Amino acid sequence: MTRPDKQHSAAIGTFTVRPLDPAADAELVHGWVTHPKAAFWLMGDASLADVEREYRSIAAHPHHEAFIGLHDGEPAFLIERYDPTEVELKGLYEAEPGDVGMHFLVAPTDTPVHGFTRAVITAVMAFLFADPSVRRVVVEPDVTNSAVQALNKAVGFEVLREIAKPEKDALLSACTREQFEAATGGNDR
Question: Which residues are in the Acyltransferase MbtK/IucB-like conserved domain (predicted)?
Fold first, then answer.
């Protein structure tokens, strides 16, 4: 899905999503993924060239995509969407038809807005579920990342089990369309 999707949160503003351009967005994304608040992204020591190379690789991959999320027209978050049977979770879980994997990262800011990150994850999930073939979103946050685990729970994710990945111990979690709608009260669109 590479079309821009629009989500609106009355209190927060308007969110849109566009494909990430590895060359044009590398500097922006480098600042995000190397920031101390992005420690769980595991790119803290990455050079600008490393970041561009990583996102060129994702752009070329048939089962992985990256997007820039905009808040009121300004870049504010990063989304990675992937086929978990081919990327990240291949061989590590029991896939179901309609599964899609997701990573998201909110840009660091000196002026945080209360509720912003929850509004972002809600917009990300609505973006993913806008594809009618998506039945369930799966994620694999680090077992020590309590902040994202709380956000995941707030939008309907349930922890399935702990899994060992090469780079981390993770909490395999999943959220169906129905769980998402129940958790967000259907106010995601």
Answer: 18-65
Contact 184, 156 (CB under 8 A): yes
Q: Kindly report the pTM of this predicted structure.
A: 0.91
Parallel, antiparallel or unpaired: strands 169-176 and 13-19: unpaired
- Please give the pLDDT value at position 4: 46
Which of these ranges, 15-19, 37-41, 137-141, 145-149, has the smallest mean pLDDT?
Answer: 37-41
> Greatest CA separation found in the chain?
42
CA dist 110 and 105 (Å) reads 16
Rounded to whole angstroms, how far apart are CA atoms 78 and 104? 5
d(Cα 64, Cα 88) in Å, to the nearest integer?
10
